[in-house]
Design goal:
The chain has 194 residues and is mostly beta strands. It is built from no helices and 17 strands. The strands form four sheets. Strands 8-9-11-13-12 form a five-stranded mixed beta barrel. Strands 1-6-7-3 form a four-stranded mixed β-sheet, with no helix packed on it. A three-stranded antiparallel β-sheet has the order 2-5-4, with no helix packed on it. The structure holds zinc ion.
């Protein structure tokens, strides 16, 4: 079982069927209890049920320095366009303008030729806000910033950190090796770090 209060995405494992029954916002998939909505994992102790409480729609205003979780929508050579989903540590959705951009110089401390080498559509990314307001700008140049969850471009399985360092990530299903700009804690499950 994962820690209560952890932010989970749909499909994330929260417990085994031996530990808990599936409750609101969760489902039993072949003996694994997984979240079916994005939200906060809780245990209903009375019923021994796993529950995921969806993020509420209370508006959150972004400020420079905030840590956000976002999903990659489009990748160009010089710019990554993302949808900001969540401010780390605040269990709320973002409302209003939530499109944001990561300019290529702000992807990493090292020089990046093309953003296409570092991000793919659908990647979940942890970033910091460098500019708020009408044009939201983000940076992933930091140890715990970058891709925190991503899927194989060949078969869509969730990628894991590669065992040999030929690439950053590898697919446990088809063996595809993939490059991303990953956060230092990729795969550790603590998505709501701040
Ligand atoms: Zn694969």
């Amino acid at each position: 079982m994962i820690e209560e209060g952890t932010l989970v995405f749909p499909g994330d494992k929260v417990a085994t069927a031996e530990e808990l029954l599936p409750g609101a916002g969760t489902a039993d998939v072949n003996g694994t209890i997984v979240g079916t909505v994005m939200g906060t994992f809780m245990v209903n102790k009375k019923n021994s049920q796993a529950e995921v409480t969806p993020l509420t729609s209370t508006p959150v205003v972004l400020h420079p320095g905030d840590t956000v979780i976002c999903e990659v929508k489009h990748v160009m050579d010089k710019l990554v366009l993302v949808d900001v989903l969540h401010v780390a540590g605040k269990h709320r959705h973002i409302t209003g303008d939530k499109d944001a951009a990561i300019p290529v110089p702000d992807i990493a401390k090292a020089y990046v030729t093309s953003a296409k080498d570092k991000f793919k559509i659908g990647d979940m990314v942890r970033a910091t806000v460098t500019q708020a307001g009408a044009n939201i700008r983000l940076s992933t140049a930091g140890k715990n910033l970058g891709v925190i969850k991503s899927y194989c471009t060949q078969c869509r399985a969730e990628l894991e950190v590669a065992r040999d360092k030929k690439a950053e990530l590898e697919c446990p299903r088809c063996g595809s090796l993939e490059e991303r700009h990953i956060a230092a804690d990729y795969g550790e499950g603590n998505l709501d770090w701040k």
